[in-house]
Design goal:
The complex is a heterodimer of chains A (282) and B (264).
Chain A: H1 5-10, H2 15-40, H3 44-66, H4 75-96, H5 101-121, H6 131-135, H7 143-172, H8 174-179, H9 184-201, H10 211-222, H11 229-254, H12 258-281
Helix pairs in contact in A: 2-7, 2-9, 2-10, 2-11, 3-4, 3-5, 3-9, 4-5, 4-9, 7-9, 10-11, 10-12, 11-12
Chain B: E1 5-12, E2 21-28, E3 34-37, H1 44-52, E4 59-64, H2 69-72, E5 76-79, H3 93-98, H4 113-125, H5 141-153, E6 159-163, H6 171-185, E7 190-193, H7 197-200, E8 206-211, E9 213-218, H8 224-231
Parallel strand pairs in B: 3-7, 3-8, 5-6, 6-7
Antiparallel strand pairs in B: 1-2, 1-4, 8-9
Helix pairs in contact in B: 4-5
Classes of the chains: A mainly alpha (282), B alpha/beta (264).
Chain lengths: 282, 264
């Protein structure tokens, strides 16, 4: 059995752990806020498609970097571009009502993944694999991630402070919001872009595949307790941070992969809350 | 003085070929209220969306409070059908009512003090003062409908547009609810989609039958009681020949209201 998180944080050999922990805690704020909108607006599957689609951008960036010599093309940039692109694409199709929502979600989902895998398999250089992007690789976490999380987090916070009531209005009752003259398409697309930013943030800690669990399970638990959305956001942020810390602690002690461990901790808490709160509520 | 509502030869279809509303003409005065009836799929919701300016007619003109619908939108107090709410949505009663305060403009940051005062006043009007901090999902069906009325009232509307406000309300509360509406009808014109013509007919001046074609009927000469005696409780349509001199109405065009149908 390995040592716990506290001792490991003091060990200079494991400085990446400290960076990962800080990145996780900072991201919790964004996850708590954006996840609350995602859960109440019921767009978990759109978030899932956006996350998986980011893989397309990652794959292309890795290919461009190692095979085409575009050394400046960072996989994170590729992830952001394809996540935002898929968010706008799904959003535009949903708003135009020209296709069934779940059908376009599925189509974008698989296209992104297929492109990502296709490009990565064309990279001949050794040591480049898709796996650490799919499931996370905590060794990849760097100080640059911290800057990125802080900067994008500040952006999400600012948008929330400015437009929270508009987001609440479209989450609760889109038809009424439209009747009151609110530009529903603008705020809907903005919300999807905020979701796109969030799912890419923790790619090194959690990976692309399972990140929607951390986005949606804490708000799902909080929604049963909270009276309003602000409380739900605070509560979700706290739970998200707790799951990350607990997951890292467990993964160190049992020597398991960090990402899936954090996700399993969240899922266990969700199912426990589902059974307990459900019993008390009704 | 401009009319509350005026439709002149309005045609509408979603796909350009199947008409949903055809050649609709009617007018509503500023001191009058109207009950919209008709079968499901007959075009009632489309009519509401045309009044709100969310849909544009292919032909004809619509004027709301003397102006085009999208210019008047801020002055319309709207209550949509409540069927599509997520019953688990965590939101307080006050926050639901505040959503009515998006008039025009960008509205950056949180709601202001005067918005909250307006919301509290609107809740008082529907006898829900003291409910501001309650969770919306904890309320009974009737209380929720009253919250939605408060949300429609919070921006000081000059026209109320209510889409099946009593759909999920239990019978005991229904009467009380219509008392609230009757009171509001003395202050502003109300356009109400409802199956409960029996309750409504005592305070609306007109009944509007919508089934692709649109026909307006006066209700002044029949009381709610007689209507109920004639049609029973679950009335879905008006017999057009009931209250009009013979020959004044032409009903042989296709797709009219089913003039003799009842249910329930």
């Amino acid at each position: 059995m390995g040592s716990g998180l506290l001792e490991a944080l003091g060990n200079p050999l494991f400085s990446f752990l400290r960076t990962a922990l800080i990145a996780g805690l900072l991201s919790s704020i964004i996850f708590g806020i954006v996840g609350t909108y995602v859960v109440t607006k019921r767009i978990t599957y759109i978030a899932g498609a956006i996350a998986h689609c980011a893989l397309g951008g990652i794959g292309f960036a890795l290919y461009a970097r190692h095979e085409l010599g575009w050394t400046a093309f960072d996989p994170m940039l590729g992830a952001f571009l394809s996540a935002i692109g898929s968010a706008l694409l799904i959003g535009a199709v949903v708003l135009s009502r020209s296709e069934r929502e779940d059908t376009i979600i599925g189509a974008v989902w698989v296209t992104g993944m297929a492109l990502g895998i296709l490009f990565v398999k064309k990279v001949r250089r050794a040591g480049v694999s898709i796996e650490s992007w799919l499931f996370g690789n905590i060794n990849f976490v760097s100080d640059r991630d911290l800057w990125m999380v802080s900067l994008l987090g500040a952006g999400v916070l600012l948008l929330t402070v400015l437009f929270h009531k508009q987001f609440v209005a479209i989450c609760f009752d889109e038809e009424f919001a439209r009747a009151r003259g609110l530009s529903v398409p603008v705020f809907y697309l903005l919300l999807l872009c905020m979701t796109a930013v969030s799912v890419v943030l923790l790619v090194h800690v959690i990976g692309i595949i399972m990140v929607i669990a951390l986005l949606t399970l804490p708000p799902a638990i909080s929604s049963r307790l909270a009276r309003g959305l602000p409380t739900m956001m605070l509560c979700s942020t706290g739970l998200c941070a707790l799951f990350i810390v607990a997951g890292m602690e467990i993964s160190l002690r049992l020597n398991t992969v960090v990402g899936p461990t954090i996700i399993l901790v969240s899922a266990a808490a969700y199912f426990a809350a589902f059974m307990m709160i459900g019993r008390f509520n009704r | 003085m401009a009319a509350a509502l005026e439709f002149n030869n309005v045609d509408f279809s979603y796909d350009g070929s199947t008409p949903i509303i055809e050649d609709a003409s009617f007018g509503l005065d500023k001191h009058e209220s109207i009950c919209v009836v008709g079968p499901n799929g007959g075009g009632k919701s489309t009519l509401i969306k045309l009044v709100l300016g969310l849909l544009k007619p292919q032909a004809g003109t619509i004027s709301v409070l003397g102006r085009p619908p999208d210019e008047s939108r801020a002055a319309i107090g709207y209550m949509p059908q409540s069927l599509h709410f997520d019953p688990r949505f965590p939101i307080t009663v006050l926050d639901v009512v505040l959503m009515g305060r998006f008039g025009s403009g960008l509205h950056l940051g949180p709601f202001r003090r005067r918005d909250k005062e307006a919301a509290e006043a609107a809740l008082e009007r529907v006898d829900l003062d003291g409910f501001t901090r309650r969770r919306f999902s904890e309320l009974s069906g009737g209380q929720r409908q009253r919250v939605l009325i408060a949300r429609a009232l919070v921006d000081e509307p000059r026209l109320l547009l209510l889409d099946e406000p009593t759909a999920n309300v239990d019978q005991t509360f229904e009467k009380q609810f219509h008392e609230t509406l009757r009171e509001l009808a003395t202050e502003m014109p109300i356009v109400l989609v409802s199956h409960d013509l029996g309750f409504v007919s005592s305070w609306v001046e007109h009944v509007l039958c919508v089934n692709r074609h649109v026909h307006m009927h006066p209700t002044t000469s029949i009381s709610g009681k007689t209507l109920r005696e004639i049609f029973g409780q679950g009335i879905v349509a008006v017999r057009h020949d009931q209250d009009c001199p013979p020959g004044e109405h032409v009903h042989h065009r296709g797709g009219d209201c089913d003039h003799h149908s009842k249910h329930g």
